Amino acid sequence: MAKCTIRYWAAAKEAAGTAEERVEADTLAEALEAACRLHPDDRFLRVLGASSLLVDERPVGARPHAGVAVSDGTVIEVLPPFAGG
């Protein structure tokens, strides 16, 4: 399992109660499952479900999360919808 970092922004940071954390995973899906185990409350799950994701600064978009590999040092960013402009 790879050691990767999940960074939370805005409402995701507030819902997680932290700006970032380290998890062990081989795919983005596994990393997000680990985050959900750490934060099993509904608010976190709603924010995560509405967020865009970047893996090493690249948008995940509609790609299946199980097909996005992570490795040691990978940074996953959770970007909730932002208001304003």
UniProtKB/TrEMBL annotation:
**Top-level taxon:** Bacteria
What Pfam families does the record point to?
ThiS (PF02597)
What is this protein's name? MoaD/ThiS family protein
Tell me which species this is from: Nocardiopsis codii
